[in-house]
Amino acid sequence: MNMPLLDNDVLRSFVAIAEHGTFTSAAKAVHRTPSALSMQIKQLERNLGKTLFVREPRRVTLTAEGEVLLDYGRRLLRLNEEAVQYFVSPTLEGKVGIGTSDDVGTRILPEVLAEFARSYPAVLVDVVVGSSKQNLARLDAGELDMTLVTVADEGRIPRGEVVHEEPLVWAGREGSSAYQRSPLPIAMAHEGCAWRRMTLRTLDKAGIPYRIAYTCEHCSGQEAAMLADLAVAPFPQSLIRPPLKEVVGDTLPQIGFYQLALVRRGSNPLNDALASHVKEAFQGLR
């Protein structure tokens, strides 16, 4: 029995539709017409014998089978790009420095660095962990080539390119009682943290009394305060893992969304290559 082959152009269209939510927006991203994308997806569904999208009036959403194919599709496209780069890309050598906070460093960068090393084994990547403010200062001083920074100020145009957005939610230990105390005990980073400004502004607006019970620059320190049930903390939804959980209470206001932006000092083949890998990694989280 001959198995159907997955065409990279079709997979690229499929991933674009899944990420943009509409055929029209996806068509602009891949430079095709919506009708051409529709024909590609219909043929793909016939080849696989599965329905991949639920068509709604204003958008499309993935079925369970579509979610599975999305993961395969992203990996196949990355592997295809990696194989092509190996043979046709110019050999890159040198050193590139990237700044990041500890949460992004532990969650995203291992995958990024592994793939980048396979594509460009002669390049040394220097990772500097610090706050957004510290890393922006290093970038402006010429010590870094790029850095990931947290953006939380409403209406503020960030430096760089936004590569990720997600909710900032309340987190605490499973079975926590900290969120029921008054004033509300919270664990925060130090002054200058965008999450801190965003959270305190939300609490002040809601008129909720609070006290900063624990401060630490790193997420691991804030996690320790939550695990001891000393406080709750604002945390990215994707970072919450057992025994921590998202805390939802009638008195806790929604904090809102925060963004991560990639700020670069300049453009050259080496920096462009690493920036491309970073942006692809965040696209895989959506």
TrEMBL record:
Q: Does the keyword Cell membrane apply?
A: no
Record keywords: DNA-binding, Transcription, Transcription regulation
Transmembrane stretches, start-end: none
InterPro entries noted in UniProt:
LTTR, LysR_HTH_N, LysR_subst-bd, WH-like_DNA-bd_sf, WH_DNA-bd_sf
- The HTH lysR-type domain sits at 6-63
Q: One Pfam family, short name please?
A: HTH_1
Q: Which GO terms describe its molecular function?
A: DNA binding; DNA-binding transcription factor activity
Keyword Transcription regulation in record: yes
Q: Which family does it belong to?
A: Belongs to the LysR transcriptional regulatory family.
Protein name, UniProt field: LysR family transcriptional regulator
Q: Record the organism.
A: Marinobacter flavimaris
